[in-house]
Amino acid sequence: MARPKKVGLDYFPLDIDFFEDIKIRKLIKYLGSKSISIYTYMLCKIYKEGYFIKWDSELPFIVSEATGSKEEYVNEVLKFCLKNHLFSEELYNKHNILSSKGIQERYKLICLTAKRKFNISKYNLVNSEFSTQSKVNKSKVITSSNEEVKKNTQKKDLGCVSENLNEEENSNSKTSKNLEEEKEKNCEKKEKELPKGFTTELRDSQFFKNVCEFFSQKSELLQMKVIGRMISIAREKDFEEFRKQTKAYMDYKNQTGEKVHRFQNFSFEWDQDDWIDKLKKINQTKTQNGNAKSESDDIIVGRVNVTKTESYLESRRRQREMESARTFETDI
Known about the structure:
The protein is an all-alpha fold. Helix content is 71%, strand content 1%. The chain has helices spanning 22-31, 34-49, 59-67, 71-83, 89-95, 101-113, 132-138, 144-190, 198-204, 206-214, 220-236, 239-256, 263-269, 275-331, and strands at residues 53-54, 97-98. It has a two-stranded antiparallel ribbon with strand order 1-2. Helix 2 (34-49) packs across helix 3 and helix 3 packs across helix 4 (71-83). The termini are far apart. Residues 128-145 have low confidence and may be disordered.
């Protein structure tokens, strides 16, 4: 016996803009976030069966048990979904069927990409069977030749859709390859060739030792990371400028006592601030403060000297007056 054809799906895609859809936003706003779990559970049931399910008296209980909600709430969510066209209200009113045009289009696309045979003959909304034109055509008798023509046109449409999908896949693969090639070219352009022995010279340099000591990179593993980061900086940017900025940064932090960054953070942000300029400003302010202090000290010292001389002269004057008074008494 031949194995029966599988109609249902094992999975279905969920768009990243799912919560941006105005219908979903209204559903969450008016019925709460629990309504999304009920709606997605209904979608799972539909895609498991194919592209539609029949709503019966047992389904509210099944949905409520799976989502932890009450049956009354499940029915409210269903009514809201029908009013906001998340499910076809016409199909539900006529046949008690839950489906929609979007569900059927998604089902069709999944079957095409999976190269599965499918047939959307029952409750078809993709070809607008429930439109006003189809209602007029229902009154007419459809002959067998017209049915064959319809089948042929459907096959052609499916063939065109599959060809378009293949073309899109090929174009996407080409664009991705081109992007990868451009990235590789850009990387090759950005990265510079380092001189021979650069790594060993850097490892033995006093600059590297000072950096490791300043940023507390004492273990062998941390020092290897520092070397690796410095090599990447030398390949991508001006290493001499990095060396100058790093020295200025260390002097600046030592003088100000501010918090020191981690080396990994500093190595990615070193060119965002001009540490040489910051260090110059600090030194300028220090020299200005030092000159002002020395001038004030000189003024104070000068004042002290003046007062000392004045007191000395006053004392000498008094001594002379006392001596002259004594001589005057002896003469008498």
